[in-house]
Design a protein that fits this description.
The protein is α+β, with helices and mostly antiparallel strands. The protein contains three helices and ten strands. Helices cover about 20% and strands about 45% of the residues. The strands form three sheets. It has a four-stranded antiparallel sheet with strand order 3-4-5-8. A hairpin with a 5-residue loop joins strand 6 and strand 7. It is elongated.
Length: about 160
């Protein structure tokens, strides 16, 4: 009777391992620069055979923060639909450039700058492909910049030195 219980446990564990090893896995990987800004997103949906292939899938398709270069810390970008938003330099000495590719006249949006207390410090109502944000009159510190474009938004952490 004891041998039957052990055999049942072994068969059960084998079936569970087989089912778990053949599952579909969804992973979301975020990449960040040295200032803490999110610079990329990667969604990976894969059918994995074992834990090693899952790790390989994420490493190959995701972002390894250790591979981010100093240049990437100066220029950050994110894609919103068919538009690419690029912000540089970050950290900044006061003049920040916000570029938006494929911007059309029908696109609506704005850029807002907030202090760490949440107070709105600046607002740009009309977006262009190249927007210059001057924060040289603001004290050194951390600011949050919200870019809103066609009912989508993204938030960036801006560091002023």
């Amino acid at each position: 009777m004891k041998a039957i219980k052990i055999l049942f446990i072994i068969v059960f564990v084998f079936i569970v391992q087989t089912l778990c090893a053949q599952t579909e896995t969804t992973s979301i990987v975020y990449g960040y620069d040295a200032a803490g800004n999110r610079i990329s997103r990667s969604l990976t949906i894969s059918k994995v055979d074992d834990a090693d292939s899952l790790k390989t899938e994420i490493t190959n398709n995701g972002v390894n923060p250790e591979e981010i270069t100093n240049n990437a810390a100066q220029q950050l970008s994110e894609t919103m639909g068919n538009k690419q938003i690029t912000i540089f330099p970050n950290p900044t000495d006061g003049i920040l450039q916000v570029n938006i590719t494929n911007l059309e006249t029908k696109d609506k949006g704005e850029i807002k700058l907030f202090g760490v207390n949440g107070a709105e410090l600046m607002k740009v109502k009309t977006l262009q492909e190249s927007n210059t944000i001057n924060i040289s009159n603001k004290p050194n510190g951390i600011y949050m910049m919200k870019v809103m474009l066609n009912e989508k938004e993204t938030v960036w952490k801006i560091v002023k030195n």
